[in-house]
Amino acid sequence: MQFLCKEYQDGNPRVRGLVTDTRIHLVPSLNPDGYELAHEAGSELGNWALGHWTEEGFDLFENFPDLASALWAAEERRLVPHQFPNHHIPIPEHYLSEDAAVAVETRAVMAWMDKNPFVLGANLQGGEKLVSFPFDTARPSPPTAAAAPHPPDYEDEHPELQETPDHAVFRWLAISYASAHLTMTETFRGGCHGPDVTDAMGIVQGAKWHPRAGSMNDFSYLHTNCLELSIYLGCDKFPHESELQQEWENNKESLLTFMEQIHRGIKGVVTDQQGEPIANATIVVGGINHNVRTASGGDYWRILNPGEYRVSARAEGYNPSVKTCHVLYDIGATQCNFVLSRSNWKRIREIMAMNGNRPIRRVVPGRPMTPREQLRLRLRL
């Protein structure tokens, strides 16, 4: 925060451009109770888990609704996307009840996410040195018929890894941070507490490294437009004061580079033919089975890797619009606006409702109607 303010005032063109063109939200501490406990113990007397839980005993990073399991269950029943959405999955009602085992911090963060149309996010942690991206939840292996006993293998010990539809984008975002870090990709010494799990890249899918359900990253991806990652800044959760400057230098370029990735992909505004913005319109990118929605002003942002994409905008009561959008390698989102015309589907649904939502028989031109068909037509009219 100090760096951004000082460099902006000093006229740093990179920081000025970032601050001017980006809405940046910073939360100094998500878990102030845990931070206070760990801070009192310090680096020598503390351990990796100290400060991980709130004063009430909640692990905030496993306290969000498990929407991934709900999505996969709906996929197995072939309900996605016609009856169960692949994006903005609603929070279960039982989770919102007052007596639910949900931390006050978790409720505050969920309300914050619903209030702001975030596009890119990162939660900064310590105790490791890597970047973790969704899914954090491991998909249960599908049930199989009983078979003869056999020696356990990797697949038996580890649930199935399920990649997000935006797996390539998440990998790019993770690499953008890790590769700019001064030491994160130097994994030849292994990880902080064991062997290297990042394949010498400093990045890992959460379910492969530390499977857990109800993470903030999975919730952000499935309930909002936001792509969120966990960034573990270093092995020591509480470096000594003399080491802080070097830790800052290790992460400074990575933080700037990561924030700049928000301007990669496509952006635009969805309006009607009179120029009025359409909120909650759905933006569909061909080949990526995960949609986003427009904000209250009809604007949207979609982080994408370089390439050519077939993009469509859809909204209730409007005809969809489709166009091809090109994403370049340079930083700077491609403008992709949509103008939607009103459709007659709303009136058709009203007629269907008057008919009890039964299919309306199509009259074939030139064929005389039967007495039964004439009676039905008169009743409908």
Mean pLDDT score: 89
Secondary-structure element pattern, one letter each: HHHHHHEEHHEHHEHEEEEEEEEHH
Number of domains: 2
Instruction: Find the CATH superfamily of the largest domain.
Output: Zn peptidases
Cross-sheet strand order for the largest sheet: 1-4-2-3
Distance between the termini: 67 Å
CATH topology of the largest domain: Aminopeptidase
Rough outline: elongated
Care to count the β-strands?
12
CATH-level-2 architecture of the largest domain: 3-Layer(aba) Sandwich
Number of helices, counting only DSSP H or I runs of 4 residues or more: 13
Low-confidence stretches: 145-157
Give the CATH class of the largest domain.
Alpha Beta
Major sheet description: 4 strands, mixed
Secondary-structure class: alpha/beta
The radius of gyration over CA amounts to 25 Å
Helix content: 25-40%
Domain Peptidase M14: 1-262
Organism: Rhadina sibilatrix
Keywords: Glycoprotein
GO molecular function: DNA-binding transcription repressor activity, RNA polymerase II-specific; metallocarboxypeptidase activity; RNA polymerase II transcription regulatory region sequence-specific DNA binding; zinc ion binding
